[in-house]
Amino acid sequence: xxxxxxxxxxxxxxxxxxxxxxxxxxxxxxxxxxxxxxxxxxxxxxxxxxxxxxxxxxxxxxxxxxxxxxxxxxxxxxxxxxxxxxxxxxxxxxxxxxxxxxxxxxxxx
Amino acid sequence: xxxxxxxxxxxxxxxxxxxxxxxxxxxxxxxxxxxxxxxxxxxxxxxxxxxxxxxxxxxxxxxxxxxxxxxxxxxxxxxxxxxxxxxxxxxxxxxxxxxxxxxxxxxxxxxxxxxxxx
Lengths: 109, 118
What we know:
A: mainly beta; 7-stranded mixed β-sheet; B: mainly beta; 11 strands
């Protein structure tokens, strides 16, 4: 089973700043089947990025994903007030088990 | 518009059973695989189970294997999760999520809360 480790646990930033979130896998993620989700309190997760770097439908271009193998990054170029939330990475694909990272909370400084 | 609506959650005693349902609309349900994912209060996301479009392939997390059963009725556009021998640690919001051909969970329902407590 692939274990995903996200860092930092919490990121304290101000609106307009750049956010860089990390997701590290215990083994290589095949075909870059790595996704990022955003979750706000009381809401379901929303797909942001799939295939490590492709934005889902309707996701603003301030969100970008990069990486391959075992190291992946989600970048929010300029934080908007609505971006303060918890972000999860997830590996999918052919593995019988899907796994999520523990999450990174982006909070207002 | 893709819609997934979970139901069936509630309060149940340890050792009890519960059946969750997920009603799908806005897409061809029979063409998509589906997942159940849960989230304990204040915790992260945990994948629970997967079922392929034809029900030919089914997977479970180790934490629920032997206790939970996933199923679907393509004629009714519905997904189910039968949960038996419930434990305190099964307390969570349970989400159903559509999976594309790569198993990417692209659309999620709003979830239903299951509370296991005496």
